[in-house]
């Protein structure tokens, strides 16, 4: 980011309010709420829309949603690149929201206008499938939604955090609170989507079911744009990927050079780095010294005064440290994947468990199996509120940290609770199958076993608590530790970890299903009758993998080096001015 656009009080006689701060949160959160309402409201029940309204075969519908999900999980990298390199976060969010709005509008119109979908099925006749034109509208709408979501997801959270000045001690403490409340708001919107919107879609109609989030999204765009004068705007500072590649190429070209004895002799240029070090410059760290060679000044690098160096041969130590910071984040990023894999089972096998259990609250009211995730969301929201209001204050007395505990500790707690969640899930499955056997229902795949579905509440709730600790810590970690000019890109990595975790779940299920199959037809994960499987073994396999992952994470956290930053005007070091000039050479 090049600069922060703020009013200069010296240029105005009238005292002006600094830009950013808490006053901007309603405008930013409204955009996130509506995006989540739309995404979750569509995805939760979209399989029903495709099969019942467009008469799409189940396998084709499933593949359509899978392809859409895969595309939507990759587009945040594109959106982050555009934001950090060219457009800035505000305009990326605005344009992406409009693109998303167009996609939602097209999908809503296809649900309202009869000519945009096949006619209803009549009796026992074979249902007429959607025409090529009708499918084109569907695929176009989904593609626009994926592109729009890719611009919103990585930028909204970073743009919100940008509203707090980290160099101001009074505002710095609000940044970690922002991440808690960002996730809380996101959780509330998801909770509304899986309850209210799904109810509207199933009982009132798809026109209203898709129309409500479409209208909400339109209003959120207007609200977000109205807040423009209040925001702190960070200008883009060029492609971060180009800078990382330049450092890598420079280090490779100079790989045979001997390392300088004094790090102060490495190249520094505050003017060159001004646009990418608004919040402070990164200082040298002693690890990954092979990359430091990119900052060694040779005779070939000497240029005329005022002329920029060839960045494919020479880079500043700040840019070298940017690459080091990205590399350091990699192992911590990878550790979060398996938690998502464990979490993903709620929408598959846990859902199938719920379908076989007694879900009646009263004689006339039965909890939908798909609504069991409400317990996950409620526990997550409760934990976030409790953490922010109580746990932080208690932890602060012992750690002295404003945020209570570090984000690495917070993630570690989440990992441990996730291990407990899948462990409990295995024992719950044993209890469910014992009830099926006791009532002679083991061979009846679709029979309702007389055991309360509330036996599943502990595993759903533990997953929600784990997410409140781990996912928010993960998100905070990416924002805090990423180079400041790459924060949208770093936030996109958070969403990418979620995507990889879901793909990992698919791979793990496929491998277990293949290698647990026996000649007699038995399988840990049977296709038809869950009562004859060994789902508890699958849960405990995930538990074992998570234990290994936890040990891996602890090692990574112990070895992790926090991003070293020197705030402008504070703690100035003697950096050996001669060593920072291009006139110096090896």
Automatic annotation (TrEMBL):
GO cellular component: membrane
Membrane spanning residue stretches: 90-116, 136-160, 181-200, 206-231, 325-345, 365-387, 407-427, 447-472, 493-517, 537-560
Domain of life: Eukaryota
UniProt key word Transmembrane helix: yes
Membrane topology reported for the UniProt record: Multi-pass membrane protein
Subcellular location: Membrane
Main location (coarse class): membrane
Keyword field: Membrane, Transmembrane, Transmembrane helix
InterPro entries: MFS_trans_sf (IPR036259), POT_fam (IPR000109)
GO molecular function, one term: transmembrane transporter activity
Gene3D superfamilies: MFS general substrate transporter like domains (1.20.1250.20)
PANTHER family in alphabetical order: OLIGOPEPTIDE TRANSPORTER-RELATED (PTHR11654)
Similarity annotation: Belongs to the major facilitator superfamily. Proton-dependent oligopeptide transporter (POT/PTR) (TC 2.A.17) family.
Name this protein carries in UniProt: Major facilitator superfamily (MFS) profile domain-containing protein
Organism classification: Eukaryota, Viridiplantae, Streptophyta, Embryophyta, Tracheophyta
């Amino acid at each position: 980011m090049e600069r922060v656009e703020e009013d200069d009080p010296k240029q105005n006689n009238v005292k002006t309010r600094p830009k950013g701060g808490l006053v901007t949160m309603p405008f930013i959160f409204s955009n996130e709420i509506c995006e989540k309402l739309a995404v979750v409201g569509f995805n939760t029940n979209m399989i029903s829309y495709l099969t019942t309204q467009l008469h799409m075969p189940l396998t084709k519908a499933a593949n359509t949603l899978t392809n859409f999900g895969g595309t939507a999980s990759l587009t945040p990298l594109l959106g982050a690149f555009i934001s950090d390199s060219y457009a800035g976060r505000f305009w990326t969010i605005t344009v992406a929201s409009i693109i998303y709005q167009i996609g939602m509008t097209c999908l809503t119109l296809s649900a309202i206008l009869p000519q945009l979908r096949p006619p209803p099925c009549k009796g026992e006749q074979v249902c007429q499938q959607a025409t090529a034109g009708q499918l084109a509208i569907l695929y176009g709408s989904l593609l626009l939604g994926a592109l729009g979501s890719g611009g919103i997801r990585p930028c909204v959270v970073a743009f919100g955090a940008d509203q707090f000045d980290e160099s101001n001690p009074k505002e710095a403490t609000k940044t970690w609170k922002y991440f808690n409340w960002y996730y809380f708001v996101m959780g509330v919107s998801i909770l509304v989507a899986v309850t209210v919107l799904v109810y509207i879609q199933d009982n009132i109609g798809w026109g209203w079911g898709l129309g409500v989030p479409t209208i909400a999204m339109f209003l959120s765009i207007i609200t977000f744009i109205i807040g423009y004068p209040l925001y702190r705007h960070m200008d883009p500072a060029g492609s971060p990927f180009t800078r990382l590649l330049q450092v890598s190429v420079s280090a490779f070209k100079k790989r045979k050079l001997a390392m300088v004895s004094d790090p102060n002799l490495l190249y520094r240029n505050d003017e060159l780095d001004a646009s990418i070090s608004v919040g402070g410059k990164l200082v040298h760290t002693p690890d990954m010294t092979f990359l430091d060679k990119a900052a060694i000044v040779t005779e070939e690098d000497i240029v005329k005064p005022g002329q920029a160096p060839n960045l494919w041969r020479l880079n500043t130590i700040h840019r070298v440290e940017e690459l080091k910071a990205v590399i350091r984040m990699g192992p911590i990023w990878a550790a979060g994947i398996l938690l998502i894999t464990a979490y993903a089972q709620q929408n598959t096998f846990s859902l199938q468990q719920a379908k076989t259990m007694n879900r009646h609250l009263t004689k006339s009211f039965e909890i939908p199996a798909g609504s069991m995730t409400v317990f996950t969301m409620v526990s997550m929201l409760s934990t976030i509120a409790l953490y922010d209001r109580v746990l932080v204050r208690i932890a602060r007395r012992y750690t002295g940290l404003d945020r209570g505990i570090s984000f690495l500790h917070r993630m570690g707690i989440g990992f441990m609770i996730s291990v407990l969640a899948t462990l409990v899930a295995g024992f719950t499955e044993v209890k469910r199958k014992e009830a099926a056997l006791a009532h002679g229902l083991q061979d009846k795949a679709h029979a309702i076993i007389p055991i309360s579905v509330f036996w599943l509440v502990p595993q759903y709730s533990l997953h929600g608590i784990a997410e409140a600790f781990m996912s928010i810590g993960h998100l905070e970690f990416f924002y805090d530790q990423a180079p400041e000019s790459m924060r949208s890109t770093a936030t996109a990595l958070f969403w990418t970890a979620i995507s990889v975790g879901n793909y990992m779940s698919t791979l793990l299920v496929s491998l277990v299903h293949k290698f647990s199959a026996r000649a007699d037809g038995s399988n840990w994960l049977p296709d038809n009758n869950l009562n004859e499987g060994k789902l508890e073994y699958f849960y405990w396999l995930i538990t074992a993998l998570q234990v290994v992952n936890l040990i891996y994470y602890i090692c990574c956290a112990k070895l992790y080096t926090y991003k070293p930053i020197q705030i402008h005007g504070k703690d100035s070091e003697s950096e050996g001015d001669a060593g920072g000039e291009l006139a110096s050479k090896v």
